[in-house]
Structure to design on (210 residues):
């Protein structure tokens, strides 16, 4: 929640604007989003005053409706929105526009064999493709199922959630830690949009045999 405010002796007047941006102020290229704002009086109560939205960076964010705030992520970058109630204006509110995730594929073999005494797999790599720019610094979640179940403890290196590189590639390794050496581990790599929906091609599945 972000505020703009002014000092006034009249508690019934509008003294602040509360601004709420969806998805922590993040949106993908070509997606519309609906920020919210309301006017507050001197005791913090909502006031039924009209609010008006504008973009301070129109090449990145376009305001489609100045009264509702519905806006469009037009190009990759960080743009600023501002809200006005009469003469009172909010501080510029940053919105990060990300490249639009389109698909996820394996970047290399999807099967690997780990021969004793080695305990660590080769890299299990995926590559994300996006529109409007590279799929940089986007979250990829890895999960593993060990067969037979409960026979061994395995872990991900460096960890089970990693972020894509500057060219959209993410990578982990599987390491056998303890217990009975497993027959295999099935690994899935999942990438999601901001709303939590898996992108096409996700999850990518790998099989590591021990």
């Amino acid at each position: 929640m972000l505020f703009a405010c002014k000092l006034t002796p009249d508690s019934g007047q509008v003294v602040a604007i509360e601004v709420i941006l969806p998805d922590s102020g993040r949106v993908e290229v070509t997606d519309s989003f609906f920020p919210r704002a309301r006017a507050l009086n001197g005791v913090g109560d909502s006031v039924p005053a009209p609010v008006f939205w504008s973009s301070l960076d129109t090449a990145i964010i376009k305001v489609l409706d100045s009264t509702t705030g519905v806006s469009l992520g037009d190009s990759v970058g960080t743009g600023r929105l501002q809200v006005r109630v009469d003469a009172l204006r909010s501080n510029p509110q940053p919105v990060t526009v990300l490249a639009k995730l389109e698909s996820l594929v394996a970047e290399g073999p999807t099967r690997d064999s780990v021969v004793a005494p080695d305990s660590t797999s080769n890299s299990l790599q995926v590559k994300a493709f996006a529109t409007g720019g590279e799929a940089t610094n986007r979250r990829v979640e890895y999960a593993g199922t060990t067969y037979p179940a409960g026979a061994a403890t395995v872990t991900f290196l460096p960890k089970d959630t990693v972020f894509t590189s500057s060219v959209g590639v993410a990578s982990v390794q599987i390491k056998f830690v303890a217990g009975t050496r497993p027959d295999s581990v099935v690994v899935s790599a999942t990438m999601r949009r901001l709303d939590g929906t898996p992108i096409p091609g996700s999850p990518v599945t790998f099989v590591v045999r021990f």
Observations:
- The longest strand covers residues 169-179.
- The chain has two domains: 2-98, 100-209.
- Residues 2-98 form a domain with the Immunoglobulin-like fold (CATH 2.60.40.1080).
